[in-house]
Amino acid sequence: MRSNPRVRRSSSHSGRRSRRAVRAAAAAVVAGALALTACGGDGDKGKGDDDGKGAQNGGAGSVALPELDGATLEVAAVWTGAEQANFKKVLAEFEKRTGAKVTFVPAQDPIINFLGSKIAGGAPPDVALLPQVGAVKQAVDKGWAKPVGPDAQAQLTKNYAQGWQDLGKVGGKQYAVYYKAANKSLVWYNAKVFENAGAKEPGTWKEFLATARTVYDSGVTPVSVGGADGWTLTDWFENVYLSQAGPEKYDRLARHEIKWTDPSVKDALTTLAQLWGDKNLVAGGPDGALQTEFPASVTQTFTGGDQPKAGMVFEGDFVGVNIAETKAKIGTDAKVFPFPAVGDKAPVVSGGDAAVVLKDSKAAQALLTFLASPDAATIQAKLGGYLSPNKNVADSAYPNAVQRAIAKALIAAGDDFRFDMSDQAPQAFGGTPGKGEWKDLQDFLKNPKDVAGAQAKLEADAAAAYKG
């Protein structure tokens, strides 16, 4: 899952979600984390769940889809590896039900640039999955995105909280279906490493640093940071900032109503420097972290027996896909706790990927309808490493207690939540590799002592992007 900002205020006003959600979702995540720690592994299925939800293969409760024999579709997304492979299984089910032929088109970040080149060449994909709120608005502003049809809208109304529907609106009109969500406020850890070190799950930032040092004393480097992918660093910042500065300032910074030279940003960067500036706590030190891509940051935490390269890794629920590649079992070998509270409350930051139609057709709208249904989400939920904002996906669809707890926390947030800050910013600032916030935070990871310099760079890049 990528994190990209958007400067302009979108019609969804996602940056202005109430504080109520942060508290409710945080409480749900904490409760879920406590419950899942005591649970078993992948075979633990929730009892009492309605397996009829998300029925597949045209059974009772399945979404009605048209016959599309002979129709062809191209679907573009930035997903790779297991995430891409699992989504292809969803597309295969759509093919089976409709007779259409669907081709997955691998895209690159920033996806708006990728789509722009495709459109300029006269060969846009029919549907694209956009990983930023801002990208949806940009696609609409450019005249690329087509409105959601009535069948897909009916599925949205039935299956989604209003807040998730609103995120896909521009100018009050529905243009997108949020097929994939993310809880981006989680720290995953190697259970054996914690057991050997005598370490406990922390609840506060101070406790987190103490736990990291306990793990270090046991002979394992505590924290893996995927610094080669700048979007992971924006997620670190957002969690610290939301918890430390609070929801109001988070919303204002997301809209650039507060400058990045504000003292609240200084405080958050100073807090991050307590971790990033200690080479003993970060796998490979800052230089090593900057050469570590996100997938490797996960896999190196769960390979190597009880002597992995790191004991913990921060990122969203989608980490499960990468953990699965290591053969570690979620809930037993790999456990999770909520991002520690830096201020009064633990942060809960959400993200997501939205499906938009670029070439309007019966087949493209049918795919959007399918993606808005519990049927599609249930298929991918069962494969792991995926979280749906669709409230009618059965808990039992998720393959283990950990992922069920995370999914319940997301749904419990209802209409109110804090969306990824960088996803709300202009792409030039929060969504482009090697530029803007991604690059500025990579530079800060390399030199965490230069808080003032990082603030100055962030503000200069933000001002230019928001003005543009």
Produce a short descriptive summary.
The chain is of the alpha/beta class. The chain folds into two domains: 72-183 and 350-419, Periplasmic binding protein-like II (D-Maltodextrin-Binding Protein, domain 2), CATH 3.40.190; 186-347, D-Maltodextrin-Binding Protein, domain 2 (3-Layer(aba) Sandwich).
Q: How does the SSE layout of this entry go?
A:
Layout: H1 19-37, E1 72-77, H2 81-98, E2 101-106, H3 111-120, E3 127-130, H4 133-141, H5 150-159, H6 162-167, E4 169-170, E5 173-174, E6 177-183, E7 186-190, H7 191-197, H8 205-217, E8 223-224, H9 230-245, H10 247-254, H11 263-276, H12 285-290, H13 294-299, E9 312-314, H14 319-325, E10 334-338, E11 349-357, H15 362-371, H16 374-383, H17 401-412, E12 418-419, H18 427-430, H19 436-446, H20 451-467
Parallel strand pairs: 1-2, 1-3, 8-9, 11-12
Antiparallel strand pairs: 3-11, 4-5, 6-11, 7-9, 7-10
Q: In terms of per-residue confidence, which ranges show pLDDT below 50 for 5 or more consecutive residues?
A: 1-61
Please, what is the average pLDDT?
87
Number of domains: 2
The count of strands amounts to: 12
Binned, the helix content reads: 40-55%
Radius of gyration over all CA atoms, rounded: 21 Å
CA(first)-CA(last) distance:
25 Å
Reading off the top of the CATH hierarchy, the class of the largest domain is best stated as Alpha Beta
What is the global morphology?
Answer: globular
In percent, how much strand structure appears in the residues?
5-15%
Supply the helix-strand structural class: alpha/beta
- CATH topological fold name of the largest domain: D-Maltodextrin-Binding Protein, domain 2
Considering the protein shown, what is the CATH homologous superfamily of the largest domain? Periplasmic binding protein-like II
> What CATH architecture of the largest domain would you give?
3-Layer(aba) Sandwich
Taking the sheet with the most strands, its summary is: 6 strands, mixed
What is the overall number of helices?
20
